[in-house]
Amino acid sequence: MLHEGAPSVQTYLRLRSVSGLSAKTVQAAEAGLPHTWYGVTVLHGDDRRPVGMGRVIGDGGCFFQIVDICVTPEHQGRGLGKRIMAELVRELESRAPEGAYVSLIADGDARFLYEKFGFRETAPASVGMHRMVRSG
Questions:
Q1: What span, in angstroms and rounded, lies between the C-alpha atoms of 28 and 136?
Q2: Fewest CB within 10 A of the end CB: N or C in the chain?
């Protein structure tokens, strides 16, 4: 079952951790999650335990980024990542303005999933770059 909206801080931190994404602090999650443009959480079983998630962030008009796509290891390979992406892309296509630029960072073989939804590598015309903020 898919639940619309940003995950709770606790769910967000747990899913990132168990699925191998980089750790985030409680303070960062508390500040960032309310700015989710659209998000989904995959709930499993009778207890509706969160086992996957994905979010779209952005300015609401010109630029959007798909982030936090993850599924717990025991639920990978069951099409849940594809289901998450389908829902995020569906929402973008229904609400984002025509011509909006949607980006994401594809780690490893995840690029094959994203290609199924029309995402293409930007190199050599442009390359993704990043920088982590360090305190002190």
A1: 16
A2: C
